[in-house]
Amino acid sequence: MRTFDFSPLYRASVGFDQMAEMMDRLLASETQASNYPPYNIEKTGDDAWRISIAVAGFSADDLNVEARENALVISASKDEAAGERVYLHRGIATRAFERRFTLADHVRVSGAAHENGMLHIDLVKEVPEALKPRQIEIARGASRQLEAEAVN
Predict the structure, then answer these.
(1) What phi and psi, each to the nearest 5 degrees, are found at residue 62?
(2) Most exposed: 43, 48, 88, 92, by fewest CB within 10 Å?
């Protein structure tokens, strides 16, 4: 396993601690990453995405989708009574899981749907008007002089 020392980044910059913590988290989770349940992330527009998770065997009531700060947490638990069924072969896993996704700033969950054994979560990026680039009109020298004379 590779380890990186981010202390030079902390000494030379301000405000990048979240990025360093995220990289630490990603590198640490690389070794213990679970492939269950399988999922897809697709781009549905310029500022829109859809996460589709295969949740065969789970009902909508068994699933929990939660947006916290800059994270999306999907979890599921299935309450099965012990001894209720006897399986000769069990290939459909319905074990509890928790899957986390880190979201960028201004990305919010716009909806979730459970359909045909798939959980679809739609995401959209909505940048506030105050943060969007805007064109600044450049005043000409003559018009600025006229404004000054009108004030006097």
Answers:
(1) -80, -15
(2) 88
**Residues 13, 91 contacting (CB under 8 angstroms):** no
Q: Which residue has the tokens 């005043």?
A: 139
Beta carbons of 43 and 68 less than 8 angstroms apart: no
Whole-number Å distance between alpha carbons of 22 and 102: 8
Q: What is the CATH number of domain 36-151?
A: 2.60.40.790
Residue 88 has which token pair?
């000769």
Annotated domain spans of the chain: 1-33, 36-151
* pTM of the complete model: 0.67
Query: In tens digits, what is the pLDDT along the chain, a chain of 152 residues?
Result: 566 666 666 665 666 666 667 677 666 655 555 788 999 999 999 999 999 999 988 999 999 999 988 889 999 987 766 567 788 888 887 888 999 998 988 899 999 999 999 999 999 998 888 877 888 888 887 655 555 566 55
144, two tokens: 């600025």
At 66 the three-state DSSP class reads strand
